[in-house]
Amino acid sequence: MLGRSFLHRTETAVNTESLAASLFQQLQQGQGLQQVSQQLGLDSSQTTQAVGSALPLLLGAMGQNASEPQGAQSLLNALQRDHLGGGGGGFDLGGILGAVMGGGGSGATDGAGILGHVFGGQQPQAAELLGQKTGLDSGTTGKLLAILAPIVMSFLAQRFAQQGNAGELSSALGQEAQHAGGGLGSLLGGALDQDGDGQFGASDLLKLGAGLLKR
User: Fold this and answer.
1) What percentage of the chain's residues is helix, strand, coil (to nearest 5)?
2) Most buried residue, 153, 183, 187, 206, by most Cβ within 10 Å?
3) From CA 196, how far away is CA 55, in angstroms rounded?
4) pTM above 0.85?
């Protein structure tokens, strides 16, 4: 469960004290986690732990991709093009979950396609290492990442796409990399290395998930 100390970090002008914590809290409300649990065939405790580990991993990797101006602008363009939505009604978690799990097939809900951009060729390794952290098989963690990826993108779009400031997006996601454990390397570059051994292993992923699950 999320601790209060993690949720009540100092807010910035764009309310990015912790994007992972904010999104995790929204998933806890309503039927979000329950729907994910049913989709994956997990109990509520397993789902809570798995989502709590996966969100910092996803946002941290996006932070690495957006650490350079070109990467940040490319991400912002994708958010504006595919994930902002036309209703202007804010972050519709229920609608996104329904579309993702219903297999609508649009670019906005194509979790595998999004993960391909986020992790590149390291996507299977990310799923496997998330499995090591959570005790789930890599097939299940891969499905979880594919479910969460469109949700994360829509969440970011509602926060950053309308004002269209790539620098603000980059800064906020950079903070997520720090929240995820600091010193977050890039899977695209070869390693999400938390312990400085030059490899992204189970010990690194454990540190990534600690921000949501330990406080």
Assistant:
1) 70, 0, 30
2) 153
3) 22
4) no
